[in-house]
Amino acid sequence: MKALAARRRNPVVVTLLLLVALLGVGGVYAVATSAAPAEATASNDQTAIDEGKRLYLEGCSSCHGLNAEGTSNGPTLIGVGAASVHFQVATGRMPMAAPGAQAGAKPPVYTDEEVAQMAAYIASLAPGPAIPTAEQLDYSDADVAEGGVLFRINCAQCHQAAGGGGALTQGKYAPSLMDATPQEIYEAMLTGPQNMPVFGDGTLTVEDKQAVIAYIMNLQEAPSPGGISLGRLGPVAEGLFLFAGVMVIFIGLAVWIGIKAR
Amino acid sequence: MSDLTTRDSAETPDHGHGPTTDGDGTDLARPLFTGPGALPAADVPHRPRASDVNPKAARRVERQIAAMFMLAVLMVILFVIAYVGIDPYTMAYVPVLGEVGAQNAALGFTFGLGVFAIGAGAIQWAKKLMPDVEVVQERHTMTSDAEETDAAAEQFERGKEESGFGQYRLIRRTLIAALALFPIPLVVLLRDLWSPKNGGFGPSPSEVLSETAWTEGMPIVTDGTYVKIRPEEIPVGGLVSALPENINEIQEEEHNLNARGKAAILLVRMEPDEIRSQQGEGWDFEGIVAYSKICTHVGCPIALYEHRTHHLLCPCHQSTFDLADAGNVIFGPAARRMPQLPIGVNEEGFLVAKMPFQEPVGPSFWERG
Questions:
Q1: Are the Cβ atoms of A257 and B238 closer than 8 angstroms?
Q2: By CB atoms within 10 Å of each CB, which of A25, A48, A209, B233 scores lowest?
Q3: Number of Cβ atoms within 10 Å of the Cβ of B369
Q4: Is A16 helix (H, G, I), strand (E, B) or coil?
Q5: Least CA distance to A192: which residue of chain B?
Q6: A chain contacts of residue B304, beta-carbon cutoff 8 Å
Q7: What is the pLDDT of residues A69-89, one digit of tens each?
Q8: 3-state class of B330 per DSSP?
Q9: Contact A108, A92 (CB under 8 A)
């Protein structure tokens, strides 16, 4: 015990203890915040809407209001449409884990069926963008090059030319698109989640959206022959990374060369 | 070697192998030289290396160095094998790096390790086997001595004398006149900044910077797809990158992208009561406002628009503009607000510019102040 007590002020020990404490707190927090999904069953429209309303009252109404009219904690959901509900809930952005600048994606809390029920309920309140059909999401005939042009004009400023995402003001950010599904991309363009602007069908047609999706899918599948892609930020980031890494090696070699042989 | 003082070299010709005269360690503290100007830094004891005193250690180092060179040979062979044998499109998993092109990684690894082994072997050779002596290099004063400076001054005087610079007054004055006028052509050429147009001179650089392709009634088209826009096609919260309808014609005529760079605009729609102020009365159309896309700081194109805060953020230097408040700067180094384009609809119901930009777009320039 005496030996232990003598070493407790050692910087290595302090660092280790700090690491253990941080991991412990983070682990407990992660376990505590992952809520168990509720069960639900529904088949036809009205029961779906009723079930969706039940889920809404249970999980969403504290911020969005009992009639989805919105409160000071959350915007109104009247007229946002089923597409918005699916995007927000299926990607785990809603319900929010904690108030903050932006609701980030996380493992979804609700099952696909429950999401569909909530979407049916919100869509029943007022017309809004519907969940895109399989036909709208079919990007197999889309022009990837055209999609690249549209992506660079409309999306790249925030999501970065290779879809890696980027920072916005005051803690907000544009997320990476590397894990986004075609449906999520389509819904995001259609509904403008959080601070993303809306890209309506009038100025970015269904074909244009399909082309953008095709381009993003192409980005997702593109291999990275050099290994670590560093967020595909390009030559500046790669150069800095290499410079910093190689400089350490070079300094080490210089020290080795300079040491007097024994 | 004239100003180098070496120790030991005379007494110990056999530096590669075997013990030196210092081997017994008797005279390690012997100063290199004494007398006036002796440098204290040179006064270090000489310690023989293991390879100097122990022939076995020397043999071991020799084998070590040879092994490094053999490694380089092996790597060169593997490089050629990798080039010939690995399909360029095969991907492979490498720890730390992740999925990489197998050939790419193999070529880099073999070539890098090969070159490194040659270098490391050479350094090891120099450090462990080549002669180990302390060397002192003495410093000298940097200035030339009086004799040399006098000779240079004398030469200059003689040159002046022989050229007759002081004697031929006419030549001297005409030479001065010629040299004084010499920069004038360089200045005159600046007139070329007024781009030639129809045989004469076109608009001045400041006029070029102050004008864009937007004219009264010019239809607004989407960037990329070039279709005219109806106001109802932009939902609240919507964002459209747009250009004047004739942009492609101008571009073909001018053979450059300058017009596009200046005329690029953003259309955003907000609830009309969210607009707190604009740069002119009624410059919006039912909540749709049009602002230049070019940052007033150093001209980066901006479209990082947050539709809830109406902030427009420049990714280059974080200048932030509030599009709900006349495009004013709320953060960052930009010195001027974002110029607004007054818009309306034409009789066909398409969005058009009501008039050109009322102030120059993009970064500041000399005449603008």
A1: no
A2: A25
A3: 5
A4: helix
A5: B237
A6: 157-158, 168, 174
A7: 888 888 889 888 899 999 999
A8: strand
A9: yes
Q: What does the DSSP assignment read for A85-100? A: HHHHHHTT-SS-SS-S
* CA-to-CA dists, residue B207 to A141, B128, B204, B212, B361, angstroms: 47, 72, 5, 10, 12
**Cα–Cα distance between B334 and A21 in angstroms, integer?**
44
Contacts for B261 with CB less than 8 Å, ≥ 6 apart: B294, B299, B301, B362
How many angstroms separate the CA atoms of B111 and B71, rounded?
A: 11
Least confident residue range of A167-181, B110-124, B315-329: A167-181
- Are the C-beta atoms of residues A154 and B224 closer than 8 Å to each other? yes
Comparing alpha-carbon positions, the chain A residue that sits nearest to B315 is A157
pTM (two decimals): 0.71
Measure the CA–CA gap between B13 and B152, rounded to whole angstroms. Answer: 46
Which helix H or strand E contains B321, and what residues bound it? Answer: strand B320-322
DSSP B186-252: HHHGGGGGS-EETTEE---HHHHHH--S--TTPBEEETTT--B--GGGS-TTBEEEEEETTHHHHHH
3-state secondary structure of B310: coil
Identify the DSSP state of B345: E
Are residues B238 and A200 in contact, defined by beta-carbon separation less than 8 angstroms?
yes
User: Residue B18 is inside which H or E element, if any?
Assistant: none
The reply to whether B22 touches chain A by the CB within 8 Å rule is: no
Strand partners, B243: B221
What is d(CA B290, CA B308) in angstroms, rounded to the nearest whole number? 17
Domains and CATH numbers, chain A: 40-131 (1.10.760.10), 132-222 (1.10.760.10), 228-257 (no CATH)
Which of B225, B227, B265 to mutate: most A Cβ within 10 Å? Answer: B225
DSSP state of A198: B
Say if the ipTM goes beyond 0.85: no
CATH architecture of the domain B214-353 equals 3-layer Sandwich (2.102)
Residue B138 half-sphere exposure, CB side, CA atoms within 13 Å? 14
* Chain A contact present for B99, CB below 8 A: yes
| Cα torsion angle, B42, B45, B46, B49, sign | negative
As a whole number of angstroms, the distance between CA B319 and CA B334 comes to 6
Structural tokens at position A174 = 């544009």
* Residue the block writes with tokens 């809520």: A35
Summarised one tens digit per residue, pLDDT across range A2-60 is 666 666 677 777 788 888 888 888 777 776 655 444 333 334 678 888 889 999 998 88
Angstroms from A168 CA to nearest CA on chain B:
7
What kind and span of H or E run contains B359?
none
Which chain A residues have a beta carbon less than 8 Å from that of B305? 197
Burial of A163 (0-12, 13-18, 19+ CB in 10 A): buried
> Which residues have a Cβ under 8 Å from the Cβ of B288 and sit 6 or more positions away?
B231, B234, B267, B268, B269, B343, B351
Cβ(A185)–Cβ(A199) below 8 Å: no
- Comparing CB atoms, the residue among A172, A195, A200 nearest residue B233 is A200
Tokens of B130: 């080549």
The candidate with the shortest Cα–Cα distance to A115, out of A164, A208, A48, A178, is: A48
